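Section 5: illustrative case.
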């Protein structure tokens, strides 16, 4: 059965898409079957694979009963369910559907035996699409930067995920807080990391792995490649490889 992981933050620019793309690639390199889902109308994950205007997107699957099998595109050794810019229109329509929070979970049921991991790239909000992702997920990852106001966004995410767990998905757990674009040598970064580590709500749910600042992570997506294909010896490839190993170990799988 697939482990479904939602990568979520209600703020943009926190590395959600970069994490889904490169964590997915890292897991695939460890011989796991991986499906990526672009749930963001900006379509950055879809663009990372140089896919333009897919015929069947996640919007059709959720709202119009489109075939989820038809929506899957093979991108190298990974699989992707793409997004389009009209996902915002589908989100508006989704809000009027009975049981609207469960549409993604229902859509993914036929696929859970075909993949080892399903990673969902959420939009930078906690709207109906992100809630769908959390209702479908086994775990969620919160990528964040060590910066001012980091606590504010984390507070909101923890409040929402707690409600989802109580009301709609009692198996939902926090896989971990993932620091991205981190410079661990600065005192400010050290202070933010320590403050979040001391938060009783987070407990020990912080990844030992952190993603260092690395221009290769930005450049690789621009060239429609994973960081492993673009710069295999970079900090970014090393860090995401370590993250995949940590996740596999946490799930009792050989890393």
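Designed sequence:
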């Amino acid at each position: 059965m697939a482990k479904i992981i939602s990568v979520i933050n209600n703020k943009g620019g926190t590395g959600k898409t970069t994490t889904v793309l490169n964590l997915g690639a890292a897991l695939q390199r460890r011989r796991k079957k991986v499906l990526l889902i672009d749930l963001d109308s900006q379509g950055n994950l879809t663009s990372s694979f140089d896919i333009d205007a897919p015929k069947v997107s996640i919007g059709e699957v959720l709202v119009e009963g489109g075939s989820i099998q038809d929506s899957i595109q093979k991108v190298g050794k990974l699989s992707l369910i793409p997004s389009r810019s009209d996902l915002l229109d589908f989100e508006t329509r989704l809000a009027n559907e009975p049981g609207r929070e469960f549409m993604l979970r229902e859509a993914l049921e036929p696929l859970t035996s075909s993949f080892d991991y399903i990673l969902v790239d959420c939009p930078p909000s906690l709207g109906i699409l992100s809630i769908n992702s959390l209702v479908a997920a086994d775990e969620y990852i919160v990528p964040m930067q060590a910066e001012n106001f980091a606590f504010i966004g984390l507070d909101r995410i923890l409040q929402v995920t707690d409600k989802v767990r109580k009301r709609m998905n009692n198996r939902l757990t926090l896989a971990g807080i993932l620091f991205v674009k981190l410079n661990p040598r600065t005192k400010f970064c050290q202070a933010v990391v320590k403050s979040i580590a001391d938060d009783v709500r987070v407990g020990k749910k912080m990844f030992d792995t952190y993603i260092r600042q690395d221009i290769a992570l930005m450049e690789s997506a621009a060239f429609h490649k994973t960081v492993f294909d673009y710069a295999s010896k970079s900090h970014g490839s090393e860090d995401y490889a370590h993250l995949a190993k940590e996740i596999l170990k946490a799930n009792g799988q050989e890393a």
